[in-house]
Specification:
- By secondary structure, the chain is an alpha+beta fold.
- It has four domains: about 80 residues, no CATH class; about 80 residues; about 120 residues, no CATH class; about 110 residues, Immunoglobulin-like (Sandwich), CATH 2.60.40.
- Helix content is about 20%, strand content about 40%.
- The chain is built from three helices and 27 strands.
- Strand 15 and strand 16 form a beta hairpin.
- Helix 1 packs antiparallel against helix 2.
- The longest helix has about 45 residues.
Length: about 525
């Protein structure tokens, strides 16, 4: 049993790109002979994971795979220059080419000078023989000698210039090679092949499917949202990077959020002992409280810089490219379209003045893409063109989606907060009154006639102990809030005409008993 000397091409036909690696599938039709035969297929990526290699033949042919393995070999770097070479290596290659050309020119000039020397010797011998025979053609002899001497001088000058340039090239090439030795190593290419041992009862063609995992491949979702009036178009794309050592040309691409590298073992259980102790006299006399910040999801999406990790809601999600794609192994980001849908969006103008004085236009719509929308960056496009980049949170199919389209320059909110403290005589409770005033204004362009509703949000504390009470004084609020939720978020829907001005007042009290400390 011998191995076929020439490798059989094994192209990539399908790729499943995971969060930090890729599952590669290859398909090829083999012309099998009867008996046991070892085949050499490839080349394949040297980054292929050996233990994930799986090969199978079609069930219609009476053949089986006895053994499959990946063999790797270092291939020395080929002569010449490549596009991905460093500047030093490209400079060395250019100097070597110029050096070869100058050496050939130097050899030609030396041959020419040698020929001119023999010509001058023959001419002097001819002059001597003619003078011995009584010939006196001095003008012709002088003319021929002058022509030979002039040509010898010209070629000697060219030879001196060539040798001087060669000496300069040798010095520069030596410096470049020294710098290359200090800065980089001579890379050798690691090439992998698949050695396949098959047994076939009869000769004939059979289809081979071979798959394996490989590293140096990653993908992340990216989006493009176009808002035109009340119509919103959301395009879902995939940003794919790969440097596996081989290009993916016209492959079926599947994108998955599965994390095959995560261990499936449950965490180890440790003893968690709880103990009780009596409170001290000081602890019985006082109630120690503190203010803390809590993040809630109702304040809208948080901007994300760059591409975040894959957030799939705890369930592996699978997306498919609608058509075959090509991704070269250059390590660069390649944007591939996945899906697109258009729907009616409801626009809101939202401001949380405690966090930012800007009024943000927010579009609310349902996810009609047919698949889950993973968290990722969104390129925002409005009527005037590209308006910036936002962030999209995870949304299940059919779930409502909230997408911020940036701030409005024609709105302004100014916030003023006041605080007053008083102590009740009978109960000895400390009452702190907080007054927040929001001054909202709209600057309209000539010709605007529509009324715009701005949603304002403020927050009030939420108490977790009975010794501290928080009360919203609705009779002192102007106008009364439209809603106060369980997280202490107060909301107003303020209609604003063109060039309109409104002032919103929020008043709430924080009452604490005499035992409370820390406020």
């Amino acid at each position: 049993m011998s191995t076929a000397p020439k490798p059989i091409a094994l192209p990539v036909t399908a790729v499943t790109c995971l969060e930090d690696r890729a599952h590669v599938e290859r398909t090829v039709v083999l012309d099998l002979e009867a008996g046991v035969r070892r085949l050499r297929l490839g080349p394949v990526s040297a980054l292929a994971v050996d233990r994930t290699l799986h090969a199978e033949l079609t069930a219609g042919h009476p053949a089986s795979v006895l053994d499959a393995r990946i063999v790797r070999a270092w291939t020395p770097r080929g002569p010449g220059s490549a596009d991905d070479d460093s500047a030093l290596r490209q400079r060395a290659h250019a100097l070597e080419e110029e050096q070869v050309a100058l050496r050939q020119r130097r050899d030609r000039l030396r041959s020419r000078l040698d020929l001119l020397g023999r010509l001058a010797a023959d001419l002097l011998r001819e002059i001597g023989e003619g003078a011995g025979l009584g010939e006196t053609d001095g003008a012709r002899w002088a003319r021929e000698l002058d022509r030979v001497d002039a040509e010898r001088d010209t070629h000697e000058e060219r030879l001196r210039a060539t040798e001087a340039r060669l000496a300069a090239l040798d010095a520069e090439l030596s410096d470049v090679r020294t710098a290359m030795d200090l800065a980089e190593e001579e890379p050798a290419e690691l090439v992998g092949h698949v050695e396949l041992t098959v047994e076939s009862a009869v000769a004939g063609p059979a289809e081979l499917r071979l798959s394996h995992l490989t590293s140096c491949a990653v993908w992340r979702p990216a989006y493009r949202a176009v808002l035109d009036g009340d119509r919103l178009t959301l395009e879902t794309d995939a940003m794919v990077w790969q440097r596996t050592g081989e290009d993916w040309s016209d492959v079926r691409l599947t994108l998955s959020t599965a994390r095959s590298a995560l261990a499936a073992e449950p965490p180890s259980l440790r003893e968690d002992r709880l103990t009780l102790k009596d409170r001290t006299a000081a602890e019985r006399r006082t109630v120690d409280v503190e203010l803390r910040e809590e993040e809630i999801g109702d304040l809208g999406p948080t901007p994300v810089l760059g591409l975040p990790g894959l957030a799939d809601g705890g369930e592996a999600r699978v997306l498919h490219a609608p058509s075959p794609v090509s991704v070269p192994a250059d390590g660069r980001a390649h944007r591939l379209p996945l899906s697109s849908f258009s729907t009616t969006a409801r626009s809101e103008y939202v401001c949380a003045a405690e966090l930012s004085p800007l009024v943000t236009q927010t579009a609310r719509f349902d996810n009609l893409s047919g698949h889950a929308l993973l968290a990722g960056p969104v390129d925002l496009v409005r009527g005037s063109g590209f308006s910036g980049r936002g962030a999209l949170d995870f949304a299940a199919p059919g779930a409502p989606v909230e997408l911020a389209f940036g701030s409005r320059d024609d709105h302004r909110v100014v916030r003023h907060a006041e605080e007053s403290r008083a102590t009740a005589g009978l109960t000895q409770r400390t009452v702190t009154t907080h007054t927040v005033r929001l001054h909202l204004s709209r600057f309209s362009a000539p010709g605007e006639r529509d009324e715009r509703t701005v949603t304002l949000r403020e927050r009030i504390p939420v108490s977790e102990v009975s010794a501290v009470e928080v009360r919203l004084r609705k009779e002192a609020c102007s106008p009364p809030p439209a809603e106060v939720d369980a997280d202490g978020i107060v909301r107003w829907d303020i209609p604003l005409p063109p060039d309109g001005h409104r002032t919103v007042t929020l008043v709430y009290e924080v009452s604490a008993s005499a035992k409370v400390t820390g406020l």
